[in-house]
Amino acid sequence: MDDSGKKEPAKRKPKAGGWGIRPSDDRRNGAVSLDQVGMKLMRPLLGKRGLGEGDIAFHWESIVGGSMLARESAPERIVFPKGSRTGGVLHLRVPNGALAAQLVHLKPQIMQRINGYYGYPAIADVRIHQRPLPPRPKRPGDPPPLAEEDRRALDVKLKDIDNPKLKTALSGLGEAMTRRGKAGKR
């Protein structure tokens, strides 16, 4: 306040980098990863399901490892005690009873991995529910082998190459291009 009793306008303080160019993390219109945008869009929806952090749903495979557990289970919600963000109960969905029985024995490891991911004891218990899993997008599998005539034609083109590493790389590229060309003709 000044002598007349009026409040002075608040002054903006410069950030750590000064008044100059702000780091990209601080910019409003800078490049942003798709993961961050997806999290901003999904957080309200996941919050309604008890997954307010949302990270656990997006990163489930990396949290529990890229194993059968990640493919055959899905987090449904986390229920925390009132007024606390620690000691929550993770509700996990599995498709069959055999896997549910197996997961009962893996509860300590699941809790350890999730708490290690968050960096604090967020989960104190895991409840397992036997329900069908939501559909997941299919990942492309191994491509089918080339037809014998295409393989022979590719081998003829690569017969003069002496370097085995180069020949292997060019063979893989040739296979991919041949498959792409055949897919485009369908």
Automatic annotation (TrEMBL):
InterPro entries: DciA-like (IPR007922), DUF1159 (IPR010593). Residues 1-30, 130-151 are annotated as: Disordered. This is Zn-ribbon-containing RNA-binding protein.
